Amino acid sequence: MAQDGMVSLAGGLPHPSLFPIDRAAFTVTNPESFKDVTVSGNLDLDVNNLSNPKLSDFIQYGNCTGNARLRQWCLEFTQKVHRPLYKDVETLLHPGNTNAWSKVVGLLCEEGDYILCESYTYPSAQAMWIPLGNFAAPIAMDGQGIRDDELERILRSWETDHPGIRRPHVLYLVSVGSNPSGVTMGRERRQNIYDLCVKYDIIIVEDDPYFFIQYPQYDLKERLAADESKSSNEFLTSLSPSFVQLDHQGRVIRLESFSKTLGPGLRLGYFVANSIFTERLLRTTEVETQDPAGLSQVFVLSLMQRWGMDGYLTWLQSLRNQYQTRRDWMIKAFAQNFELLAASEVKSHGLKDDDGLVGCLRDASGHIVPIFSFVSPTGGMFIWSKFYLSHNSDYEQLRKSQEVEDPEQAFAEKLWMQFAENLVLLTPGSYYHPWQGAHRVTTKARGAELATTFFRFSFSMTTKEDMELGIARLAKVIRKSWKFAASPTASDPKVRVWRACRECRKKKIKCDGKEICHHCVAHSRECQYPPSNDNASANRQSVATVDQQCKVLSQLCDKVDQLANKFTVSMETLERLTTETRSLPIIDCADLDGSRAFPVDAGQDEAGALVGYHEEDETGSSSDSEVDEIGNKSDGHMALDSYGQLRYIGGPANMILVKTIQDLAATSATERNTNPLELLNTRPGETPGSASSTGISSTLPFFSQGLVWPKLPHLPAPDSVPRPPRYVSDLLVNLYFSHIHYTFPVLFRPSFMRKYQAMLDAKSSVSSSARFMSVFFAVCACASSLLPHDFEKIGSFPGLEYYEKSLLLHYRCVGQGNIEQVQCLGLLSLCSAGWNTLTQSWKFAGQAVRAAQDLGLHVDLHRVTPDPWVLVDCEHGDIDDSAMYHAVGAIAASGSSPIVRIAAAEPYMIKRALDSGAHGIMVPMCETKAQAELIARASHYRSTEFSTGIRGTGGLFAPANFNISAASYMNHANSNITVIVQIETETGVENAQEIASVPGIDMLFIGPNDLCCSMGYFAFDHKRIPQVQEAVIRVRDAAKREGKYAGYFCLSAEDAAQRAKMGFEFVNCGADIVAISSWMGSEMAKLKDLLASDQQTNGV
């Protein structure tokens, strides 16, 4: 039919002229209509109108994929919102997600298969698989949906727990506003689940009708209002990512729907999946539903063309805010009828923090009794409530009865009937029990928690007034069922009530004075109070409020006292550390390789103390020969600056500056009575130039004790600079390290990732220092160029916002000398070069070099070219503690990094190895996360960044080896010592991802011989065993995913080079025994050849 001139006598399509619809018109709302409901517009569709969608094309038979223009719109919308990571993503229209899921079940499942799903699952989804003979494999949930640890447990033990049954290969879930639980899954949890699905080859079916109805968690204290409208990008950034955004293999089938965003009667949605899935789903559609309704398609396409994508996103924001407001109505209604407390306040009843909010009543003794709990929904339309039955006498009778097989279900049915009789309707939790077979129907058989039952509340349809009325009726039923007094305050201390509502006045009965009194609640009446002109009465009513405020104020005062005490202790500690820091020695760079540090003698002037730096003759000027040697390495020194950190003194730049200041001071001395350097270094209360002034001399004008960079009030503090959402920052950091870092490795990845994780884990937005934040935003700026972007909107500068934030935070701490300055400037130079602003790039590059020189990073501290690292093998080698100490010192003196491999993961062995001055430790046979956590704790001092460290502080050999004080060593050891664990068993391979995730573990090192043995093969055959090499790759990938290094044991240069190309950053090249044996064997062979040659020559 596509060929010109083709005459079709084949098809059975009715002629468009015979369609009875010539024109269709719709009155549609403007996307901003939630703010102004009077705004609307018309959609006019003509059967022959070519400017709008042609109506006849939609009434006619289609090709089962849906209208091409609408599918293209869906694809472009998907790319804007979800940014798929692979290219062949396609869309295919369907008549609603329930039908779409039925097609997926028919495509992927066979009779007897198990389907992974949430522990409470949408019943219509189950209705698709139960007739086909499929069963559910439910996964336990928490406040973020299904738990990744439970998913892995089920998959790992499947063959053991279900012998002879195929392991599930499909995961079905509603990850945003889950129906019924209302919870939304965060990015980190999604990533963990996706990684497990990759590991176990699971196809993810993401049913996501509530994706755009995401909102913040309800706060009992702040009661935040719904957000104001944001830009489209800000709105999308605020949403939790979909699995499509993480899918780099095409294993996610996403079910999109217009039902919750435009109207369920449209019966229209679309698949998002790779082309392999969409082709098979199309075949199913051809013999089942064919195209969705044409009028629905033409309406949606016309509406989207009228609104545009940004208009549609504006509509979705408004929709989100409406549902957030409705959720808040319902929770406030709970609070009006129950004592609504955080679960942490009701822990005495066995509740956990992740139970969320708890609705409570008080018994006759005034004790709090939890009735139900729920996790505040962060998406969707539902509140999933868990009722606690242990305090209900009716339930206890059912539980003790021998005739009742499932007392929880029997009580839930009875309670539901009581709700219905009182004209309030809830959905029973039993509707959502996953079908696991007829033998697993009861609460006990399902393994569910006893003495609990669930109900689902929906806040999508009901008005605020009806919602409050319904919850009041529900509270009345609960009071009666739980045998509580009708009045919420019946058990409270007797307080005189000073007012009564109109209904209680009319009937002349006692009123409790509550906002809605218990009599009005009991009789479902409107509760109103007459206005009062009695000022005394008003004052009496305020007494309770004032008392409550006084109690709160008293609690706050107690907290302030505690904080003041902590602050005093901190200040005393700071004072002590400052005193220690000021007493640290000045270090000569020329001696750092060898061994000595000398303090400044109190009776010696500082010029004398810096003998190698710049000697002066009696006249105070330097000789020509000395000036010619400016910048010579032997003239360089490391000295403590005013922050107590080592800085480099020497080189042409510093020396020229010193000379200039000296000359300036000398030539202007006649004009000024005071040398400016003396002014700079005079203590308060002293006269410049006086004998008592002990400021530094002009040979060292840089670092005056106590003179630190002032606060800069006009530059933003780290806590005031907004960070990108978690999923955006994760994406940018991963992009940087996978695509940019290797070209310009200015960062030490493990250290950066530790600080980055600490930033994310912080409870407040103040997550780190300005120094680290400047580097973080510079990384984001560099990586932004790799994201798709609209050049018309942002020009040629993707990541400019991050660039600006990085620069501001950099300048905030520019007075300090630190490595982050070098890193930040280097990254900003790289970013500017990417924008082709080369002048700015060279400027930053020069500043980075100068900052690096200031820290002495250009100084070669060693006299020989060092080998990278040497392993001191205390596991297999004949090396005791004494030999280890000697070996570590010798290796470090030669310029190499000594790494000590201990015999076992024992804290005392770790402590001894690190106390010897080792740069790192290697621990063999690490198999579990718990072992890795113990190793990390034993390797780190306790600090604010590593609060679980247990390393002892007594050893002084390590600081001595580094020529630094014990305090300085302790301040820097945690971030500079490398902790390596060896993965050498099958169990270790299985747990590699968990081991790599442990903070404080820097590297996974593979011992191939032991790993091969543990898998049942001969140790030295590991290179030719595919299963062993697959395990090696799994460990490497696990380390990479967690931002850690991977290492491999090699015996030759060729092997080491090959492993380095495979992505192993840490490889050895042989061993001492191997080297000696190889050398001796080679030399002996040569000797034999030479002797044989001589014998032949001499005719012997």
UniProtKB/TrEMBL annotation:
It comes from the Eukaryota. InterPro entries: Aldolase/citrate-lyase_domain, Aminotransferase_I/II_large, Class-I_PLP-dep_aminotransf, PyrdxlP-dep_Trfase, PyrdxlP-dep_Trfase_major, Pyrv/PenolPyrv_kinase-like_dom, Pyrv_kinase-like_dom_sf, Zn2-C6_fun-type_DNA-bd_sf. One of its GO terms (molecular function) is 2-aminoadipate transaminase activity. Its cofactor is pyridoxal 5'-phosphate. Residues 500-529 form the Zn(2)-C6 fungal-type domain. Coiled coil: none annotated. It holds the Pfam family Aminotran_1_2. The keyword Lyase does not apply. GO terms for biological process: aromatic amino acid family catabolic process; DNA-templated transcription; lysine biosynthetic process via aminoadipic acid; tyrosine biosynthetic process. Keywords: Aminotransferase, DNA-binding, Metal-binding, Nucleus, Pyridoxal phosphate, Transcription, Transcription regulation, Transferase. Belongs to the class-I pyridoxal-phosphate-dependent aminotransferase family. This is Zn(2)-C6 fungal-type domain-containing protein. It comes from Talaromyces amestolkiae.
